[in-house]
Amino acid sequence: MTQNGFVLVASVSIFNDDKVLIIKENKPTAIDKWNFPSGHVENGEDILYSAQREVKEETGFDVKLIGTTGVYNFVSSTNHQVILFHFVGEVTGGYLNLEEDGISDSKWIKVNELVTFENKDLREPSVMMQIINNLLQEKIHPISVYNEQLI
C-alpha cells in the first residue's frame, strides 16, 4: 500500500527448527534476488494479517507470528520511501507451493549462512543485513508489541 508517498511492507522470517526460509524473487524490480517472504500491506488491512497473507501467497505455508525484529524505514532501490515491518513466524500448516508469479526458488538455510550472500544477490541488501544481524543476535521482540486491528 502506498500512502502519502510511503510504501508499507510486511516481511516474515519463517523458522523450522534451526533454519529460516528464503525465497528468490523474479519480479521486474527484483530479478533473481533472495528475500524473506514479504509484500505490500493492502488498504485497511491489519499488519499482522498482511504478514500471514503474504507468506501464504508466496510460499503456501500458514504461519503463526511469534515475534518481530522491528520496523525498518528506508528508500528502496526503486526510489520509494518504504516502512517495512519484519516478523518472525513458525509454520503451522500448508505446504511449500511456489506457484505465485515472481517467486522462482526457495531454500531453508541457517541464519548464520545468510551473511555469506553477496549484496548483489539480496533484495535491499542493507535492510536484509540489518534483519539478519537482529536474528543472529536474537533481538526479537514479543509479537504483543503490535495491537490487532479492532473490527
Automatic annotation (TrEMBL):
Residues 5-135 form the Nudix hydrolase domain. Keywords: Hydrolase. Belongs to the Nudix hydrolase family. Signal peptide: none annotated. It comes from Pseudoneobacillus rhizosphaerae. InterPro entries: Nudix_hydrolase (IPR020476), NUDIX_hydrolase-like_dom_sf (IPR015797), NUDIX_hydrolase_dom (IPR000086). One of its GO terms (molecular function) is hydrolase activity. It comes from the Bacteria. Pfam families: NUDIX. The keyword Hydrolase applies. SUPFAM superfamilies: Nudix. This is Nudix hydrolase domain-containing protein.
